[in-house]
Specification:
With about 525 residues, this protein is α/β, with parallel strands linked by helices. The protein folds into two domains: about 50-125 and about 315-525, Aminopeptidase; about 135-310, Glucose Oxidase, domain 1, CATH 3.50.30.30. It is built from eleven helices and 19 strands. It has helices at about 80-90, 100-115, 220-225, 240-250, 280-285, 290-295, 360-380, 400-410, 445-450, 475-480, 505-525, and strands spanning about 120-135, 140, 150, 160, 165-175, 180, 185, 195-200, 230-235, 255, 275, 300-310, 310-325, 340-345, 390-395, 420-425, 435-440, 460-465, 485-490. The protein has a nine-stranded mixed beta sheet. An eight-stranded mixed beta sheet has the order 1-13-15-14-16-19-17-18, with helices on both faces. Helix 7 (about 360-380) runs parallel beside helix 11. The two termini are about 30 Å apart. The relative contact order is 0.19. The structure holds zinc ion. Zinc ion binds near residues 18, 363, 428 and 472.
Length: about 525
Amino acid sequence: MALLALGLWVGAAACGGDGATPDDDAGDTSVAADTGGDEDVPGEDTALPLDTTAADSLVADTSAADTGPATLPDGPDVARLTQLLRDLSADEMEGRLTGTPSGDRAEAYIADFLAATGAEVRRQQATFPLFEVGTPTELAVVDADGAVLDGLAYFADYREVDFSGSGVGEGALVFAGYGIVAGTHDDYAGLDVTGKVVVALTDVPPGAGLSREVEGRLDQKIHAAAERGAVALVFVPAGSDASYDRERGVETELAATDKYGALHPELLAADLPVAFVHLDAVARLVGRTPDALVADPTPFDAERRVRLELRGTTHAHATCNNVFAIFPGTDERVGSEVVVLGAHYDHLGVGADGAIFNGASDNASGAAVALETAARLAESPAFEPARTLVVALWCAEEQGLWGSLTYTYYGEPLFPLADTRLMIQLDYIGGTEGPYLSNVDANNYLARFLGDETGAATLPVVPVDWGGECASDDCAFLYVSDVPAYRFMAPGENHHRPTDVFDNLDRPMIERIADVVIRGMGDLVTSKKRITP
Ligand SMILES: [Zn+2]
């Protein structure tokens, strides 16, 4: 869920942000890589127990070592990078849900690690609305005695709507069209849904003169159903939500917020469970296909009983911290220039079925490379920053870029955005496709970073032209400032699924990207040469 916060309207509910391309967020594509450094590395195949306080022990003490003429590192410490990947995606991190203890645990691990590099570590607090789903859950067609006739599978068939109420609702199933009551449009006219389970379409009916962003908002529909005594509400994706669900399937997420990602608690119902079903499961629940419901949205009694149980907590003002490592520039001419290397460290937490979203590729991979870059440069005697380097571990990306937007929009940046010459974002880099770099252009800071000032070199990445669009924390720079921002990405097939685990990572791909980032940042940040943008 990435672009909501800036009103960069992605659609009433459908989100899942950073999978791949901004427009459809699908179509993840790429090329596998050979890291070259794949000799046996101690500790690689032995799962060390997670001890967040041990993060700092991963950073070597190089003070005594006599290493001869100092050179900048040309790649990661693969054993340490691997341990970072393991630790951040471990079950003990419980999916790093920002604004909750699991998110705080990841934050502590990261801050400990960065402190051990010797860099100045800073935190910046972000505040945002958070829905934390709980267990158990059930959505089933039942008989008159409540016995299950057909139980739908959580995640595969249905999912919570973020900011759902908590409880169990069982009753006759009634289809209420689009579930909208606005002006003369009343989908509940003549319908008694007291004590019943309502099923309604998302979005708005075509040609009705209604707005998806106003009358079509899910929180408005929740309010209308709750006010009329419904005991549960189930949405069927329609309009752009349907195309999103058709394309992204189980990755689809819906949220009952406005287009800015803001919460309107007065419209929500604390005891009304609210879910949505993926398109393929609609006929099982309702007895009609999604297309048939859209073709004729006239309300009807579905002549069956349904039970929905969902548990969850709405945190209207959840908080989390961005964590920064700062390497101040010392050169009198370019020292005030700032380069930002960013990665979000949060993910989706635990599902209503208890499955952990480990988020190995999204985004333990990017966070690990950012941390390894900080450690690798900090421990190198040759690393004397001429420009200022800020390594930024963003929180709350999945909830709507709240961490990075706090840096560029809602709060204050650590350094003036006007002095920030380049932002490189690492997000979802553990797949087999790529490595991609978004929106590559003729910016000379980027060229220096990529080691391609002449423009003749073969780029170590595959440029993807998104026409300036974005889907991760780079948006917070691109849309709010003139800071040139680019995102590394190596998509795969486990986006926003519980299968996004350490063992499914393409580690040579991550190591290859780490090579590019560590070389590029080392060279760009230590260079005293003036660069025209
Ligand atoms: Zn991500």
